[in-house]
Design goal:
This protein has one domain: Response regulator (Rossmann fold), CATH 3.40.50.2300. About 50% of the residues lie in helices and about 10% in strands. It has 5 helices and 4 strands; from the N terminus they run βαβαβαβαα. Strand 3 (about 80-85), helix 3 (about 90-100) and strand 4 form a beta-alpha-beta unit. Helix 1 (about 15-30) runs parallel beside helix 2 and helix 1 (about 15-30) packs across helix 5 (about 125-174). The two termini are about 35 Å apart.
Length: about 170
């Protein structure tokens, strides 16, 4: 992998999309992938997570874990090896402009080569929320596959370097 030690899912208010995405990631990602958290770019005061998030997660047997209230993304949350996946392009710009961080900052769509932003559904039709959940879960599976591929790609690169070193030593000996 590129050495990510943490992945942060970021949305504007951290009350719907990013906590939902974080919970799906935690549920589906193998333990060896980086730990995750979710944060918001505009959290003026802590608010409870949208109750529809808990309903969606529990209907899919996923635990929201300890994320009950929205939290502001702060510079202290971000290390050199943190992967930041924002729900929208405007969230990405806000992270870059407000926190001065541009390394490893992508929209979730950019990261999986899908240009679509993830916007919170605001509709009384409950079936739209289920559809939203399924679409987001599919995107998170692609994120996980992408991270696994990066890990194995770098693993293979390390093996190639070690093999080249061994081959050059063999040539020196003969």
């Amino acid at each position: 992998m590129k050495g990510y030690d943490k992945v942060i899912f970021v949305s504007k208010g951290n009350t719907f999309s990013s906590p939902l995405v974080e919970a799906i990631y935690r549920d589906k990602a193998p333990n060896w992938l980086p730990e995750s958290m979710s944060r918001g770019t505009v959290v003026l005061f802590s608010e409870p997570i949208n109750p529809k998030v808990n309903v969606l997660l529990s209907s899919h047997d996923i635990n929201i874990s300890n994320h009950e209230n929205s939290k502001q993304l702060e510079r202290e949350n971000i290390g050199q090896d943190t992967l930041i996946l924002t729900m929208t392009f405007s969230d990405k710009l806000k992270v870059i402009e407000d926190l001065g961080v541009s390394n490893n900052v992508y929209t979730l769509g950019e990261y999986i080569e899908d240009d679509a932003d993830i916007s919170d559904p605001f509709d009384p039709d409950e079936t739209l929320y289920d559809k939203f959940f399924e679409e987001v879960a599919e995107k998170i599976e692609k994120v996980i596959l992408h991270m696994e591929a990066e890990y194995h790609e770098n693993d293979d690169d390390a093996k190639d370097v070690n093999n080249k070193e061994l081959n050059s030593k063999d040539m020196e000996v003969s």
